[in-house]
């Protein structure tokens, strides 16, 4: 088929590479300009550079809503548009333009985790698996019929970076497999159960600020979710920002006030956690590695030279 591709960052780059390696013909690529947003400088392989290396025309847009773009799309005469990690709304006059509509590739197991940062949200929430879904685009965000979907398990120590590498390798088989089904003439696909749908926003500084009222298991997953190269989860100690680079759920149970710097356990220092920590039934978060405001990385037992005091959500 003749394809126009909309995409950005490494997800878009992998999608374009899969299309270039396939039997399909890429007629035009549309991508976003480079961004200074913290999450958009991560996994930032250039879609534009890859397209230009292969002689494919490129248009740079924040939003695909201008008449010049629409005319270029009509001239490209695509059988289908393929989109992956396109960050703004695509209007109906564009997604309905090709003969076969628009196939969107999303890095979650739809209908759950529509929207932004699905791997981070899924890891924080303790999902047992993540994956990639190719679905037909319609008026609602990430809500169209599913053409192909593949899943991978989430391991007990997986970070978001681990899950990125697991799922990014699914992009090519999911995308090309879906296109092959469409090219074969199939038009009936799996409708999403909208009662199971969930939508998530872009992550920001407040989303990585540690709330010690969370249970320790949730905080441990937050630390794994906000691993390098993502911004690290953080708290405050004596008024200064302290990033938590590594942590585990404590072996013992600790009672008291959430945020209390309590006890050395193995290689870690246990912080009391959970809104009901006063009951003494909760495990704590055993921090093992931190980064200080001046950029020093230290083992927790080296940083916390004495027990007592509190970690807080704000200075």
UniProtKB/TrEMBL annotation:
This is Methionyl-tRNA formyltransferase. It holds the Pfam family Formyl_trans_C. SUPFAM superfamilies: FMT C-terminal domain-like (SSF50486), Formyltransferase (SSF53328). Keywords: Transferase. Its EC number is 2.1.2.9. Residues 1-169 form the Formyl transferase N-terminal domain. GO terms for molecular function: methionyl-tRNA formyltransferase activity. Residues 205-306 form the Formyl transferase C-terminal domain. It comes from the Bacteria. Gene3D superfamilies: 3.40.50.12230. It comes from Streptomyces galilaeus. It is an enzyme of class 2 (transferase). InterPro entries: Formyl_trans_C, Formyl_transf_N, Formyl_transf_N_sf, Formyl_transferase-like_C_sf.
């Amino acid at each position: 088929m003749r394809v126009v591709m909309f995409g950005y960052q490494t997800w878009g780059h992998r999608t374009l590479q899969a299309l270039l390696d396939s039997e399909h013909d890429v007629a035009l690529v549309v991508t976003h300009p480079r961004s200074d947003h913290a999450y958009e400088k991560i996994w930032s392989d250039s879609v534009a550079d890859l397209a230009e290396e292969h002689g494919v025309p490129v248009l740079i847009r924040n939003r695909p809503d201008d008449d010049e773009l629409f005319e270029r799309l009509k001239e490209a005469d695509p059988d289908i548009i393929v989109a992956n990690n396109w960050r703004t709304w695509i209007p109906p006059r564009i997604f309905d333009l090709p003969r076969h509509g628009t196939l969107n590739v999303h890095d979650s197991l739809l209908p759950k985790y529509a929207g932004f940062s699905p791997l981070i949200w899924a890891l924080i929430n303790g999902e047992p698996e993540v994956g990639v879904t190719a679905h037909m685009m319609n008026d609602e965000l990430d809500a169209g019929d599913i053409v192909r979907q593949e899943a991978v398990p989430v391991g007990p120590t997986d970070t978001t970076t681990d899950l990125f590498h697991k799922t990014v390798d699914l992009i090519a088989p999911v995308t090309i497999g879906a296109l092959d089904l469409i090219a074969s003439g199939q038009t009936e696909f799996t409708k999403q159960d909208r009662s199971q749908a969930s939508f998530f926003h872009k992550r920001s500084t407040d989303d990585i600020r540690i709330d010690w009222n969370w249970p320790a298991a949730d905080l441990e997953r937050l630390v794994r979710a906000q691993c390098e190269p993502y911004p690290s989860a953080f708290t405050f100690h004596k008024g200064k920002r302290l990033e938590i680079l590594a942590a585990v759920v404590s072996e013992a149970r600790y009672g008291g006030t959430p945020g209390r710097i309590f006890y050395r356990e193995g290689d870690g220092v246990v912080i009391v956690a959970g809104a009901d920590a006063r009951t003494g039934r909760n495990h704590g978060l055993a921090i093992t590695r931190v980064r200080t405001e001046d950029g020093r990385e230290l083992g927790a037992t080296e940083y916390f030279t004495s027990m007592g005091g509190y970690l807080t959500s704000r200075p």
